[in-house]
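Request: Could I get any protein with tokenized structure?
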Amino acid sequence: MKATPTHKYFKELEPHIVKKFFSYHKENPQVYKMVKKFANEAKEAGRTHFGIKMIWERMRWYSAVESTDTTYRLSNDYPSCYARLLMIENPIFETIFSRKGKKK
């Protein structure tokens, strides 16, 4: 399934964050590639539940210490969007990540 700003998971978040996220995501595809890489590594290591912020901070470490790629910044506004993107594209992550920010 293709993720769009109108997907029910994104409707749980503030619209201005979702709009900025999709723009950022389009301009920085390498970020999602890294999110997927680290999420899959955690899943393959047998983790059945973990937070996207753990991956986000791992990415910060990676970009600051292990690589020389400084072409993008990792805003704290986007981790929940990337978790939702993973869940939409690969439903196995629905059981690994929790969604917060659900609107009633």
About this structure: The first helix runs from residue 15 to 27. The mean pLDDT is 87. Residues 26-94 form one domain.
